[in-house]
TrEMBL record:
The protein's name in its UniProt record: Lytic murein transglycosylase
Peptidoglycan binding-like domain residues: 334-388
Keyword Signal: yes
Keyword Cell inner membrane (UniProt): no
C-alpha cells in the first residue's frame, strides 16, 4: 500500500482533545468519545460508532514496513507494470468509457491517470485491504508517531457513519485507513466523494463510477490543470548540463527543446513549465515533468511511486516502453542510509534516515556532486559514497 498522503489537519485544542496520543488504549478511546460529543455528535451515535473499536498491532507493523519504495525506478516500474495490468486497464477503459468521458468533460483528466491509480492502489479493485478501517485509524492515532495525520480521519469516518456510508464493524481497507478502489481517506471521501452511478450513496468499495469520479474530483481539488500533460519520456543531447536536472529547476518546455531535449513519443508541450527528471542518473531513463506531475505528490509522497504511476498513465494511452538505458549501479539499503547520514552531517536536510532516495536526498546528492566536480545528475553511486 502507498505511504500516507499529504492530507494534514490540526487536532482541536482544549480539554476534550487533551489526550492526543498514547496512554491506555481504553482511556484514549474514551477521550475520543468525549471529543466527538463536544463536537456536536449525538451521544447515541457516538456510542454505536466506537463500540466495536479495538487496537490492531498489525497496523503498527505495516506502518513500519514500506521497503518497496527503496527500489530504483526501473525495477519498481517493471514490477508494477505487468502485461496483465496493461490488458486489464485497456479492457476497463472500454467498459467504463462513459465514466471516463464524463471525467474528461468535467475535470479535464485523462483516463490513463485514473486507470493507473486504480491499478496500483488496489489492482483495479481486487485488493482493497482487509484491515478494519476504524481500528486502523484509532490505532494509528493512539500511536505517537503521526497522530496529527490520523486523528481527524476518525471524526470524518464518524460523519460518514452518520450518513450511512461507513460501518465501524465492517468497513475495511488499507492499513493507513484508506478506503475503496482508489484508496481515499474518510476526510477526502467527505470532501470529494461523487455519486458516479446515481444510487444516492458514495460507495468507493463497490462502485467503479463512484471511485473514479471521486478520484478525479480529488485530483482536481489538489490542483490538476485540465487537459494538460503530466509526464513525457525524452531523449537527451550530448553535453547536457546535468546540474539543471531535477524538480528544483523549471524551464519552459520550448527552452528544453532548444537545448536538444526531444520527445520519444508525441510533441514537446510548447511553453508549459517543465522539469527534466533522471530517476537513475544521466545513463538511465529521462522524462519531462509538467505541472500536473507535481499534483501526484499530493496523492502520494514517494518519488518512485509517483513517477511510475505517471509513466503507467502514459503507457495506458499508447506511449512506448521506456528506454531503460544503462544506469550506474545504485546503492544498497545499508549504503543509502550511510550516504544519508553523511549528507546530514554536512548540513543537508535529507529527512528520516530510511534508505529511500526521496526528493530531499536527491537534491543533497546533486549539490554534493557539484561540489566534488562530479556529473550532477542526482543519482548516488558507490563512487560518490567513497568520496564522502
Amino acid at each position: 500500500m502507498r505511504p500516507l498522503p499529504l492530507f494534514l489537519a490540526l487536532c482541536l485544542a482544549g480539554p476534550a482533545s487533551a489526550q492526543t496520543c498514547g496512554g491506555s488504549f481504553g482511556g484514549f478511546v474514551d477521550a475520543l468519545r468525549q471529543e466527538a460529543i463536544a463536537r456536536g455528535h449525538a451521544p447515541d451515535s457516538v456510542t454505536r460508532f466506537f463500540a466495536p473499536v479495538r487496537h490492531d498491532p498489525a497496523v503498527i507493523t505495516a506502518d513500519r514496513k514500506q521497503g518497496v519504495f527503496q527500489m530504483p525506478f526501473v525495477d519498481f516500474a517493471r514490477r508494477l507494470i505487468s502485461a496483465n495490468r496493461m490488458q486489464k486497464g485497456r479492457q476497463l477503459a472500454k467498459q467504463y468509457d462513459a465514466t471516463f468521458e464524463r471525467i474528461k468533460r468535467e475535470y479535464g483528466i485523462s483516463r490513463g491517470v485514473l486507470l493507473a491509480f486504480w491499478a496500483f492502489e488496489t489492482d483495479y479493485g481486487a485488493v482493497q485491504g482487509d484491515f478494519n478501517t476504524l481500528n486502523a485509524l484509532v490505532t494509528l492515532s493512539h500511536d505517537c508517531r503521526r497522530p496529527e495525520l490520523f486523528r481527524p480521519q476518525i471524526f470524518a469516518a464518524l460523519e460518514l457513519f452518520e450518513k450511512g456510508d461507513f460501518s465501524p464493524a465492517r468497513t475495511t481497507g488499507a492499513w493507513a485507513g484508506e478506503i475503496g478502489m482508489v484508496q481515499m481517506l474518510p476526510r477526502d471521501i467527505l470532501d470529494n466523494g461523487v455519486d458516479g452511478d446515481g444510487d444516492g450513496h458514495v460507495s468507493l468499495k463497490t462502485s467503479a463510477p463512484d471511485a473514479l469520479m471521486s478520484g478525479a474530483k480529488m485530483l482536481s481539488e489538489l490542483g490538476w490543470r485540465p487537459n494538460e500533460p503530466w509526464l513525457q519520456e525524452v531523449t537527451l543531447p550530448q553535453g547536457m548540463d546535468w546540474a539543471q536536472t531535477g524538480l528544483r529547476t523549471v524551464k519552459p518546455a520550448s527552452e528544453w527543446a532548444g537545448m536538444g531535449v526531444q520527445a520519444r513519443h508525441g510533441q514537446i508541450a510548447g511553453d508549459l513549465p517543465a522539469s527534466l527528471l533522471l530517476p537513475q542518473g544521466r545513463n538511465g531513463p529521462a522524462f519531462l515533468a509538467y505541472p500536473n506531475f507535481r499534483v501526484y505528490f499530493e496523492w502520494n509522497q514517494s518519488f518512485v511511486y509517483v513517477l511510475t504511476a505517471a509513466y503507467f498513465a502514459n503507457r495506458l494511452e499508447g506511449a512506448p516502453v521506456f528506454n531503460a538505458g544503462t544506469p550506474a549501479r545504485g546503492l544498497s539499503d545499508t549504503q543509502m542510509k550511510d550516504l544519508q547520514r553523511k549528507l546530514a552531517a554536512r548540513g543537508y536536510d535529507v529527512g528520516e534516515i530510511d534508505g529511500i532516495l526521496g526528493a530531499g536526498t536527491r537534491a543533497a546528492v546533486q549539490d554534493v556532486q557539484q561540489e566534488l566536480g562530479l556529473p550532477a545528475d542526482a543519482w548516488p553511486t558507490r563512487d560518490l559514497l567513497n568520496r564522502l
